[in-house]
Amino acid sequence: MIDSILQYLWKKYGHILLPFIRLNDAYYKKINKYLPSVIADFVYIIPYLLVVMSVVGYFTDVKRPNSFIFLQIPITYIVFFLQYPLGFPVEVRNNIDLWYTNSAFTSGNLVLEINGICTGIFEIAFLSVLVMGFREISFRKRLKGLEILGVIVFVENIIRIFLLYPLAVYFNMQTMWNFHDTLWKFGQLVFVMILYSIWSAYVQSVSLKKATDA
User: Fold this and answer.
1) Could you count the other beta carbons within 10 Å of the beta carbon of residue 149?
2) What is the domain extent for residue 77?
3) How far is residue 108's CA from residue 94's CA, in Å, rounded to a whole number?
4) Is residue 187 assigned to a domain?
5) Where are the beta strands (DSSP E) in 17-123?
6) Rounded CA gap, 212 and 25, in Å?
7) Using an 8 Å Cβ cutoff, are 136 and 207 in contact?
8) Who is most buried in 33, 118, 155, 205, counting CB within 10 A?
9) Half-sphere exposure of 84 (CA within 13 A, CB side)
10) Looking at residue 111, what is its pLDDT?
11) Is 91 inside a domain boundary?
12) 96 Cβ contact list (under 8 Å, min separation 6)
């Protein structure tokens, strides 16, 4: 399915992209001429990383909290349908608010708004640049790797949101927010880097084995 979509897009827009692809290849070859391949890959992705992160940062700014509403609503309902059967006192309001009612809270309730940054889009965008900039394997293999790793990051983000209410109940609100802030600011990016490191080491070992067997 994805291959068919890519073939269609290439046939339709390939002539527009070709000059940029050639320029991109020339840029990489120049870097790779003076640096080892691993370092060259890292240097190669820096401009793309800055551009992509700036764009995502712009759209996930607090002034634009619902830029990714197409992800916010599904994530809200996924968490709801996971928690409600387990007896969590949760309901969805405004399509993106998880509303918990519990006398353990001072105000009697806890509201978690799933805004743009809560979708994990920042981490997925970061991962996308890392994976697509890994030039040791073919574009198609990179794309397949991104599909798998993107799903893992998405699921990890769902688990993160799922755990917030239990943490608030069994510990306290401050512990919940500390957990949330630590994962949001540092934990998820560390998770992405670990995930990418495992994936890149695996695909390199597979490529090396195939080359040795040949």
Assistant:
1) 20
2) 14-204
3) 19
4) yes
5) 90-93, 97-101, 109-113
6) 27
7) yes
8) 118
9) 11
10) 93
11) yes
12) 66, 69, 72, 73, 76, 113, 114, 115
**What are the backbone angles phi and psi of residue 14, rounded to the nearest 5°?**
-55, -40
DSSP assignments along 140-172, one per residue: HHHHHHHHHHHHHHHHHHHHHHHHHHHHHHHT-
Q: What is the pLDDT along the chain (214 residues), one digit of tens a residue?
A: 555 665 666 666 666 666 766 676 777 777 777 777 667 777 778 888 888 888 888 888 877 888 899 999 999 999 999 999 999 999 999 999 999 998 778 778 999 999 998 999 999 999 998 888 887 788 788 888 988 999 999 999 999 999 999 999 999 889 999 988 888 778 888 999 999 999 988 888 877 777 676 5
Which position has the token pair 């020339």?
Answer: 26
Distance CA 203, CA 142 (A): 10
Structural domain contains residue 106? yes
Counting Cα atoms < 13 Å in the Cβ hemisphere of 4 gives 1
Q: Give me the number of domains the chain comprises.
A: 1
Dihedral angle sign, alpha carbons of residues 83, 85, 91, 92 = positive
pTM of the model: 0.84
Contact 161, 79 (CB under 8 A): yes
Length of the chain: 214
Neighbours of 206 (CB within 10 A): 12
